[in-house]
Amino acid sequence: MILAFLLEGRSEKEMLKGLLPRLLPPDVQVEYAVFEGKQDLKRQMKRHLSGWRTPNTVFIVMCDQDSSDCLKLKAELVERCPQAKQDHVIVRIICRELESWYFGDLAAVENALNVPNLIQYQKKRKYRIPDRIHSPASELEKITGGAYHKISGSREIGSRLSPNSNTSGSFQVFIDSIQEMIKGWDPKIEEQDTEDTEGSPSSVDERPHCP
User: Which branch of life, at top level (predicted)?
Assistant: First the structure.
């Protein structure tokens, strides 16, 4: 089985490289396609998905919500999935930014960046619901005294994030998606040919996961 991630930036890749080995069985291969921001992802994802010919592949499209309407953004990305690939695509919107997930586990951030007493911020009303923090990247940089940088920080934090105790709702939906997909995967079933899947009902994961 191959998990192919389509990501809006490099920081997501660095985080996943640390997180996924603790979630996936050893026979699952992971591939990453990193784009230059959300607009580049939107522009290229259909061509990228259409051109993929390797069987037994599940695609996971991930991007930040930022200031967008979560459900509208997700619907837009779903519409860009080729019909023939839709049975094999999961779209996940990170509410609101990748750093929201880090606010959901400040113990991991504290350990990764060696900044003491960060976990105390998790009790503050402003940070209690990570997916509702305005500009979480800026907030994380502020409370770490500038120790957090998007790429290097994501590399260190990803390997320390707890899959089970994160308080970000969108993080938990992402984890659930991965676990359900692995549990339900039948390695004997190969991806159907394009002509067999054209016109089939879409099973793109449509669950909303923004609060």
Answer: Bacteria
With b meaning 16 or more CB within 10 Å and e meaning fewer, what string describes 141-172? bebbeebbebeebbbbbbbbbebeebbbbbbb
- Phi and psi for 54 in degrees, rounded to 5? -75, 125
pLDDT, one tens digit per residue, over 85-105 is 878 999 999 999 999 999 999
**Contact present, 3 and 189 (Cβ < 8 Å):** no
- The residue type of 210 is C
Q: pTM to 2 decimals?
A: 0.88
Residue among 36, 30, 35 at smallest CA distance from 4: 30
160 to each of 3, 29, 75, 138, how far by Cα in Å?
A: 21, 21, 32, 21
């259909």: which residue's tokens? 46
Residue 7 β-bridge partners? 34, 62
CA distances (Å), origin 22, targets 26, 99, 111, 163 = 10, 20, 18, 8
CA–CA separation, 180 vs 144, rounded Å?
Answer: 34
Question: Count of CB atoms within 10 A of residue 40's CB?
Answer: 13
**Mean of pLDDT values over 148-162:** 98
HSE-up (13 A, CA, CB side) for residue 8: 16
User: Could you give the domains of the chain?
Assistant: 2-96+168-187 (3.40.50), 98-158 (no CATH)
